[in-house]
Amino acid sequence: MLQALLETLDRDARQRNDWGQVASYIPELASIDPAQFAISVCTVDGQEYHAGDVQVPFSIQSVSKVFTLALALGRLGGRLWERVGREPSGRAFNSIVQLEREQGIPRNPFINAGAIVTTDAVLGQRAPRETLGEILSFLREAADDSDVHINEYVARSEQRTGDRNYALAHFLRSCGNLHNDCDRALGTYFHHCAIEMTTVQLARAARFLCGGFRGHRMIGIERVRSINALMMTCGHYDGSGEFAYRVGFPGKSGVGGGIMAVVPNVASIAVWSPGLDQYGNSKQGTKALESLSKATGWSVFA
Ligand code: GLN
Which residues hold substrate (predicted)? Predict the structure, then answer.
């Protein structure tokens, strides 16, 4: 029944033919065809269901912030919260205005400023290459798949045009909340955002956040709870309330059009459609998750 449902969601997305706009501020992503859709679900009893363009790797972008957060919490524990908050920002992912008011402590680890800080925390004093290796290893282990890579063109394309993120990083550094220099921290950040995965790989990679047959083997239950809470409240930036209302379980979006979502103790989900809504979240991806949630009763609020 789940398989038939996913196929319906795929068909519906294509029939609506209302894809939204692809992110154009990263030149390498601007040329992607918006008329694509894929969805994958892994249930905690070990079953998998897939529909649509599930073999096409896409740029996971801000979805990668979940994995850096997992590693940063592992490294710093509760001390991470001295450097980054846990409140929804109510602002765009790349917003700069709150940072001055809050003296260089970003609102949460999923807006860009917060993710630059968590990347800096994971980096510590190590080389970017080593840190990126650690992030990739974590993802490969979570997905049970060694075929997960960084797209260098996307990383460089963003580095060349990333003035806004440079502004955020310089401001953070002026407040003493960036320990590496801006190039080093951002180089690492742009590279983990440029990781490419399919929905099959991403849904598998999210299993560590939803319990079940893999349990919470990769990280402890406390960290799982923290990450899921933050995905619920902050995972879609200024569209987070709307996502909670329409979908009703934790999820993290990226401007590549991916959304990774978790139904605790039930299933992990990845959906991808590169056209975005006004908040920079996948338009058809969100719509599909909304329909999936209604059809299955998976909202945590139900
Ligand atoms: N790499 C992107 C940026 O920093 C990530 C943003 C996103 O996916 N929302 O702008």
Answer: 62, 112, 158, 165, 189, 237, 255
